[in-house]
Structure formats: structure tokens, C-alpha cells
Specification:
CATH architecture: 4-Layer Sandwich
CATH superfamily: Aminohydrolase, N-terminal nucleophile (Ntn) domain
CATH topology: Glutamine Phosphoribosylpyrophosphate, subunit 1, domain 1
Largest sheet: 5 strands, antiparallel
Shape: globular
Strand content: 15-25%
Number of strands: 10
Strand order of the largest sheet: 8-1-2-9-10
Order of helices and strands: HHEEEEHHEEEEHHEEH
CATH class: Alpha Beta
């Protein structure tokens, strides 16, 4: 039935003779065209930083969503197709609320991530929850469990999830990951992690970094998930300049 690579990649859940799912690989490549997102875990919480691609002076930068709240203690940064991310985030929100209403406690971060990845893997099954292609988005899901422990997970279109201390996704992934590898350590404070995140974005972004085209969020055991405003970003940028 399938004789060439072109024919194999038409089947969303058909393996090639080399054991590859081309549609999943194409979805992963689509993420590499998305804006850069960075997550950094510390003992005090997690920092998420994202690039917002403002392609026109007529765009309202506040309408470009790259950070989303899932629960009061869990949030995510995304790279890839925003519509796909919104579908997955809505699913994760429902899972968190169902768990809270049933057990009167917040859902563990790892359980939330597993629920998202279980939905990601349902492409091509033909059921009521199935989609016709893999989701073309990578999520950095960050959160704090009720015992105060912080977790940062990376999910990809194959439904795989891995926990990281620091992770970058998107068009600047390779350069950003090298920067994180070089400068990350386990003793970082939350402020130092914010500085490292913005410094790393500054290295890999094509546009000049400004408070309007980047966004920062933090997740802590005390305050939960908080998306900070542009004034907060400006303060971090001033702090970086002063330290330089």
C-alpha cells in the first residue's frame, strides 16, 4: 500500500520500515518554528519566560498569549500552534477541577502532565476524543505540589514528557539550551533565575528584547502561578543592566 516516504507520511499513525512516524516528526519540526520559551527550576520556585512575536505595530501585544494558567498552582509556557495549546490547556484545566471537586486537594503536577500527554497521544484513533493529526505544540508545564516541591516538565507531540531543571523550546532552542547548560546551577535564587531567563532570551531573539515582546511568570508554593506585567519585566531588565 505504502511504497515511498511520501506515502508513509500520509498515514498519521503508520510506521515507516525504519520505525518512524513522519507526522509526529513534522509536528516536532513545527515547534522549532515557534517562539522561544524557557523554564528554570530553583529551590524557591520556577520561572517561565517567553518571547512574544509582534509582527506588526498595529498588534496589541497583550492579545498574544504564550503563558497560560492551568490551576492556581500550575501554569505553562508554549511554543508552536497556539490553538493546539489552548485545546490541551482547557483539557488540563478540566482534569484539575475534576480532581479538586472529587478529592478536595489540588492535582499533582505530574498527574496533570500525564493527562495532557494522554490526550496528545490520541491522534488518529477515530474515537470521540481523537484528532486527525498530532498536536503541533510543545508545553513547558510548571507547578508546585501541596508539599511545596516544584516541578518543570517538557511535553512534545509524541506524548512524551520529561522533568527538567532547565529547558528551552522553540526556534532558539539550541542556543538557549547551551546557555542554560553553561549558567544553570542548583543554588540559583528566583531573582537569579529571572535574570538568566531574560539574558538567555536576549541571546537568541532576533528582535531587540523589550518589555512588550517578552513575558515572565513565576510559580511558587506561597503565591502559586503568577503572570507578571511589563513593569515587572522592566525591573528585571534594569537589574540585569546594573549587574552588567
Amino acid at each position: 500500500m505504502f511504497q515511498t516516504k511520501t506515502q508513509y507520511d500520509r498515514g498519521v499513525n503508520t510506521f515507516s520500515p525504519e520505525g518512524r512516524l513522519f507526522q509526529v516528526e513534522y509536528a516536532i519540526e513545527a515547534i522549532k518554528l515557534g517562539t522561544t520559551a524557557i523554564g528554570i527550576k530553583t529551590k524557591f520556585g520556577i520561572v517561565l519566560a517567553v518571547e512574544k512575536r509582534i509582527t506588526s505595530s498595529l498588534m496589541e501585544s497583550s492579545s498574544v498569549e504564550k503563558l497560560m494558567e492551568i490551576d492556581k498552582n500550575i501554569g505553562c509556557a508554549m511554543s508552536g500552534l497556539t490553538a493546539d495549546a489552548r485545546t490541551l490547556v482547557n483539557h488540563a484545566r478540566v482534569e484539575c477541577q475534576n480532581h479538586f471537586f472529587t478529592y478536595d486537594e489540588p492535582l499533582k503536577v505530574s498527574s496533570c502532565v500525564q493527562a495532557v500527554c494522554d490526550k496528545k497521544i490520541k491522534f488518529g484513533h477515530g474515537g470521540k476524543d481523537s484528532v486527525s493529526r498530532p498536536y503541533g505544540v510543545a508545553l513547558l508545564i510548571a507547578g508546585c505540589d501541596k508539599d511545596g516541591s516544584a516541578h518543570l516538565f517538557h511535553t512534545d507531540p509524541s506524548g512524551t514528557y520529561i522533568e527538567y531543571k532547565a529547558k528551552a523550546v522553540g526556534v532558539g532552542q539550541e542556543g538557549a539550551q547551551s546557555e542554560l547548560q553553561e549558567n544553570y546551577n542548583d543554588e540559583l535564587t528566583l531573582q537569579q533565575a529571572e535574570n538568566l531567563a531574560l539574558n538567555t532570551l536576549k541571546q537568541v531573539m532576533e528582535e531587540k528584547i523589550e518589555s512588550e515582546n517578552v513575558q515572565i511568570a513565576t510559580v511558587t508554593a506561597d503565591n502559586g502561578f503568577v503572570i507578571h506585567n511589563s513593569e515587572y519585566v522592566q525591573d528585571i531588565m534594569r537589574r540585569i543592566e546594573d549587574s552588567a
